[in-house]
Predict the structure.
Amino acid sequence: MDKMFVLVSPQEYAQLAENIKKMWHSAYDGLLGAEQVDYMTDTIQSASVIDEQVRNGNYIYFYVVDGKKKIGYCAVEAEEDKLFLSKLYLESEYRGKGIGQKALAAVAEMAKRLGLSSVYLTVNKHNARAIAAYEKFGFVRTDSIVTDIGGGYVMDDYVYEYAV
């Protein structure tokens, strides 16, 4: 199988943040509205936040690639016994083509190589397409959470987990 992930370098964080805005607006404007998407990308996916997560957290950001073309991104955080799949987004024209399933398999393999027991993630309760993709892969819903993210907004999510 061709390489699916390429590490994002610190010099690419600003460009990644711009790409994230486009992907998130495409994925979420219909669910959350453009104002909330702008707020979220500015506060939790800006270049400076990505840099902070990598430097001071345990986050790793990857481009999802098709050959040499960057078609999305993925962020993971290794925890004590689980891998948190923080982000997995594809550009709109690459959704629904099986690429997300291959990316999930690569993330599961990463967790296995790290000796972790599972991969978990959060997903918006109304994001039916993503929920269907996670369930198709074998993720199981384990919780329901609401997180205040400031600015008068909340993230209303399900938690899903996949044992490796």
